[in-house]
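User: Some background: our group keeps a shared notebook of sequences we're curious about, and every so often someone picks one and asks for a predicted structure to add to the entry. Today it's my turn. The entry only has the sequence so far, pasted here. Could you supply the structure so I can complete it?
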Amino acid sequence: MSLLRGYLFEQYSNMAGARTVEHICEEASKQNIDLQVVGLCDCFWKDGQIIHKGVALEPVDFVIQRYKYGKLKREIAKLATRNYNSLDAFEIYVNKFEQMKRLQLTDCRTPEFLLTTLALPYKEVVTQVGTPFILKGLESSQGREIYLIHSPKEYEECKETWGIQKEFVCQRFIEESCGRDIRMYSVRGKVIGAMMRENPEDFRANVARGACVKAYPISDSMARIAGEIYEQTGLDFLGIDLLDGKDCLYFCEINVMAGIEGMEKATGVNVAKAIIDTIREDFENADGKCCN
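Assistant: Of course. Here's the predicted structure to add to the notebook entry:
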């Protein structure tokens, strides 16, 4: 098989200190795969070409998509034989409303939710999903744009911050899971690692918000959830967040560009290697050669 070449599409080309990016590139190098980090902020499109730091990007075998915004990611995708994750699926499931609306899972429940703007009166939201409730931005990450709303005053403060046009998901608060959730990492429907994230100082269990992590046993139910999500989305690599309710698991969200540092630290699983192994095996199984 000839040398594989790919781009890892991120916000910046220099992602120094971003362990997820660094480790994926390290594992690619170990397998003699030429993986270049291409940053949105270092590119422009002109006359059908993507110019990256003054040089036109050439076609490659694959692109790993790790940035959610903008049109440039779709133009980058056109340069590759394969995209991880599939760009169509990526653009659907980066959105929290689309996740909650589309996914039908037999081993966990989805908390009651609604999609609205902040023009909807507080009393109507409470009537629909109870109090307190979670307010989620549709494409937020690392705990940003997520609020636990206890009162009309807190709701009004969000309205003052974001205005009445911005859409949010309002979701029933699973109190038993406050500051705590289960994160799984799935590779094509197989859970390769799971961890409990706990934050005694915040209702959000994001590692970026200071949560501690520890390995968590993978149950049959968790394995089935990951399998169903893969069957319904086709997403190759993703994080899956579950809330541990009093009587059952609840679906929280999926992350189509999940960080891997916390998972690797908690479980000892080399997630970056699993990603690169999967990509390499795809091309090895494609008649034993790369297709540019």
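Suggested note for the entry: Residues 113-173 form a domain with the Dna Ligase; domain 1 fold (CATH 3.30.1490.20). The chain has three domains: 5-84+276-284, 93-105+176-256, 113-173.
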